[in-house]
Amino acid sequence: MLALRACGEDAPAVPSSLSAAQTLPANPDARPLAELSTRDSVVLGLVEGVTEFLPISSTGHLIIANHALGLEAEEPLHDQSGQPLWYKKPSPKHPNGEPMTLKLAADTYIVIIQVGAIAAVVFLYAAQLIGILRGLMGKNAAGLRLLRNLILAFLPCAVIGLLVHDWIDEHLFSVQAVIVALISGAVLMIAAERWRREQPEPARKIDVSELTPKQSIGIGLMQCLALWPGMSRSMVTMVGGYFAGLTPATAAEFSFLVGLPTLGGAAFLKAVSAGPAMIHVFGWPHVLLGGAIAAVSAALAVKYFVKYLARHGLGVFATYRVLLAIVLAASFFL
């Protein structure tokens, strides 16, 4: 996701110009609040849904979307009674707290509407998830193995992410880092695709429930590369699936499933920590609209992406990532 940068200003100022936001008139009793427009909700929902499960970096696209919609202002926001809205309330760890800003509200919004993309995968892969539940009841051995593999693939990224989260926020949440990650990821995809095509055709396709614990952990370690913003979680998981012997389509399906706890956990934590303040800024209708748009667009993207991968592999997405890096560089540095 996008960077959550602290705002160092203390004055209760509000952006003088919010190209994608509307403001209420300022007066001593009611300070302005930014309001997400319907257009913004639709655009962010589409970008999140289409890019979340494709190997093209949702971060890069969301940086462009936030920049284009003017959702980057970092002045502290206040409620209508003049009280500050907090992204992080003052605490022993953060004595001064971190005020909610338009940018932080937009970043929180993007994470929370991932619930829509999650719902799409749950709907499309309900059979596999039901198999996992049956496995927990001792009625489906393949479902139980799939659950084991998903846990083993999820754990490395979760553990390492917790250990280096602050360092990543400080050093890798920048446009420059995303551009380098986009190009590096493209090189990795091309190399993995070439490696896959040079391998002998297997006697039969390996199902995700047939991965060994070692292979699942290997995919999880590859997924750790996605902690670098712009690398793409789905891309590195699919590349890991390649090296484990999965076909492109099967590797993609495994990446969708292993993404459920990652995305769900991120959305839950963000909702608990900053969701109420974000809703105060944007309102429930726009949150629900963005989530619904993300769900529909993610379902369509996943469905047709798997069909495309089965025939063509990852090559074209590597080219697209390089083009996206060029667009990012032109947008921010020229």
Structural topology:
Layout: E1 21-22, E2 35-36, H1 38-51, H2 58-69, E3 86-88, E4 98-99, H3 102-112, H4 114-124, H5 126-136, H6 141-171, H7 175-198, H8 213-223, H9 233-243, H10 248-282, H11 284-312, H12 315-333
**SSE string:** EEHHEEHHHHHHHHHH
Overall, the morphology is globular
N- to C-terminal separation? 24 Å
Our count of domains comes out at: 1
* H/I helix tally: 12
Largest sheet: 2 strands, antiparallel
- In which order are the strands of the major sheet placed? 1-2
Radius of gyration over all CA atoms, rounded: 21 Å
Name the poorly predicted regions. Answer: 1-32
The fraction of residues assigned to DSSP E strands is: under 5%
Mean pLDDT: 85
Fraction in helix: 55-70%
Judged by helices, strands and strand pairing, the structural class is mainly alpha
Number of DSSP-assigned strands = 4
Question: Can you describe this structure?
Answer:
The protein is an all-alpha fold. It has one domain (about 35-334). It has twelve helices and four strands, in the order E-E-H-H-E-E-H-H-H-H-H-H-H-H-H-H. It has helices at about 40-50, 60-70, 100-110, 115-125, 125-135, 140-170, 175-200, 215-225, 235-245, 250-280, 285-310, 315-334; strands at about 20, 35, 85-90, 100. The strands form two sheets. The chain has a two-stranded antiparallel sheet with strand order 1-2. The chain has a two-stranded antiparallel ribbon with strand order 3-4. The chain is globular and about 70 Å long. Mean pLDDT is about 85; it is low at about 1-30.
